[in-house]
Amino acid sequence: MGLRDRLAVDEQRHDDDNDLAKTYRERLLEEVDVDELARLSPSQRRVRLERVLSRILSVDGPVLSARERGALVQRITDDALGLGVLEPLLADESVTEIMVNGSQDVFVERYGKVERVPTRFASVEQLYQTIDRIVSQVNRRVDESSPMVDARLPSGERVNVIIPPLALDGPTLTIRRFPTPFRMGELVDKGTLDTGTASLLGACVRARLNIVVSGGTGSGKTTFLNALSGMIPDHERIVTIEDAAELSLQQSHVVRLESRPANVEGRGAVTVRELVRNTLRMRPDRIIVGEVRGGETMDMLQAMNTGHDGSVATVHANTARDALGRLETLASMSEIELPAATLRDQINSAIDLIVHLERAEDGSRRVVEVQAVTSQRREEFALTPLVRFARDPIGPDRTVTGTFVPSPAPKQLLERLHRAGETVPVAEPPVAEPVETAGGGTR
Ligand SMILES: Nc1ncnc2c1ncn2[C@@H]1O[C@H](COP(=O)(O)OP(=O)(O)O)[C@@H](O)[C@H]1O
Ligand SMILES: [Mg+2]
Which ligand 1 atom is at minimum distance from the Cα of 187? Predict the structure, then answer.
């Protein structure tokens, strides 16, 4: 039975089903040999439970259609084994986020859009049971003394649980799953960027430019960072540093690091910043920082300025220009007090390119700006656009369309790409070139 059918059945026969499910779950647990069950693999366990349950139902079950009976069997085994009513949602590949707000409100995210689903827990106790089952997989527990848990499941999903009294309307569970990552070609197919922009960025990655991917929450930064990192040549040693590991690089030589929050006694935290510092002793060819949020920004800039070219990071910002300002603010959060001009110097010499993403109102994500940082040393920040997304007027179907408009690349950037042996797939500079800024040389 398809998911939609199951959900519809769930909705319609909700109360009846709860009573039935409860009765037969108890019967099942009486009849099944729990010790034997423990020795089976998860899939064998499911088959075994389904078999015993079918026997019970055919001997003295209620009169049900084949379809109703199938749904009941699945529901009871889901309850007995897995994550109960959440199982069908987890089985649905298109669901990227499951949000449970108390026992009666469940939302999912599909293709970037959040919608309510008819899934409900029979009771708050049942929701607690599911939560316990999830967090016990990673040897954690949730109760009044530790009412918040953030964990990554062995299967890769991120799980956050917060319960009353902190969550006012009941236990709240958020499961974030990571869809199979997009490759750059797939992002081109989806219209996130065009082929010209993709090959320009490919050349910049291979020529070891330091790149910052910026955008708002959910604009697709992490997804893009992953695709961009996919353009790094396979023989290089890549170290990725994240707060919550989301990246999944395909190269053969990748070391993945993840920060760790403090334990209940407030000890044992390892920050992104410490990981960045440690990485410098790991002989990386490239450092990839999932997202810079604080003092680690300074360490990242220093790493970029001391021979770790070709590094990439994301930052939360509203425009490419704003990204530079954010980096400045974040870098100033480190304990090293630096004059503003010195900070600008660090940023100007570290960052070569900013790729800014936006989530449009129709849910599509797009590269809206690619900008080269052309200011030098202590100068005020200056950006030179390489590509801009020019939007068409919005049509009657409300979908966002437009064109990626390339601009001539600054001479320095072209030279750098040429030196790295890259043929540059961008508009060449116009004949009358703008006057070069002071200090324009190579680094
Ligand atoms: N280019 C894209 N096109 C369509 N959906 C995307 C794209 N990039 C990301 N998404 C989806 O948007 C959501 C948020 O993406 P993510 O990369 O985590 O954003 P951010 O890191 O900016 O918060 C995910 O569900 C992801 O699958
Ligand atoms: Mg992200």
Answer: 1
